[in-house]
Amino acid sequence: MLGPVILAASRSDRMRRFVSAAPGTKQVVDRFIAGETVEDVIPIVEDITGRGLEVTLDVVGEDITTVEQSYAARDAYLELIGRLKELGLGARAEMSVKLSMFGQALEGGHELALANVRPVVEAAAEIGTTVTLDAEDHTTLDSMFAIHQELRKDFPQTGCVIQAYLFRTEEDARRLAADGSRVRIVKGAYKEPASVAIQDKPEIDKAYVRIMKILMDGEGYPMIGSHDPRLISIGQELARRAGRKLDEYEFQMLYGIRSEEQNRLAAEGHRMRVYTAYGTDWYGYFMRRLAEKPANLLFFARSILTKG
After folding, report:
1. Is 75 considered catalytic here?
2. Which of 134, 205, 271, 273 is catalytic?
3. How far, in Å, CA of 170 to CA of 50, rounded?
4. Do residues 62 and 288 make contact, with C-beta atoms less than 8 angstroms apart?
């Protein structure tokens, strides 16, 4: 299996240097990363929302090592929200944040991450949008869920992410569905041990379906993060059986992947949100995209063999 190998490489400084220097890297990175600055990403947001889709924006760069970097991450999101406000895009664009980028892994990280993310959530609410807390590796989740619970006291629209491959997730889904939260379900894109995560892909898919059903039957707002046609079809059927209207759940896909399917779902009246990442520290995000699908890796391998 290449996926675990690629995920291990996502933490390697040596591989980071090699990939960054490869001649074809930029061509592939540009497929998944919408630019390096706010000014790069705004035209893309305008294009996506102009086609009837919605956006969630991720400023990449979770591998920070200093408190000052966590403040810079907070300020990058506040800058983004300011530009969305100026352009009147708040209603169609939300934010996704990784708490590691806000200092979660540093000393006193739980309190630091909460202090950094709160002004971002507040600013998002002021322009009519919200924030979703991305899930990272399993060691961070108790802290993420605690911060999510704390933020929802004042901002109940704050969302979070659950990962189908973790054994704990069905229990998390029942709790969150009953609580009426906004919940994005994904398969999971971190290298996790067999003690905490399902390793077999068909079994992960089965878990994904079970969790989708919990969310669709619950009181919250499910966000189905998948490019898998079969899972999307099952999600539609589960929503129908649960009596949900088209605006009572949504689908989410990554920028640069299955764009025609994104447009098709939106044309059918579904809420379709495009997860759009930007920023200079793209390596970890990029490697996880390669690990998720072999076709992405083949595309990259062909590109780095191209000279110039």
Report:
1. no
2. 134
3. 36
4. no
**Residue among 184, 271, 273, 289 flagged as catalytic:** 184
What is the share, in percent, of the chain residues with pLDDT greater than 90?
74
Cα 126–132–136 angle (5° rounding)? 150
pLDDT > 70? residue 205 = yes
Q: Is the pLDDT of residue 308 over 70?
A: no
| Residues 164/186, Cβ–Cβ less than 8 Å | yes
Give dist(CA 288, CA 106) in Å, integer.
23
pLDDT digits (tens, 9 = 90+) for 122-137: 999 999 999 999 999 9
pTM, whole model, 2 decimals? 0.86
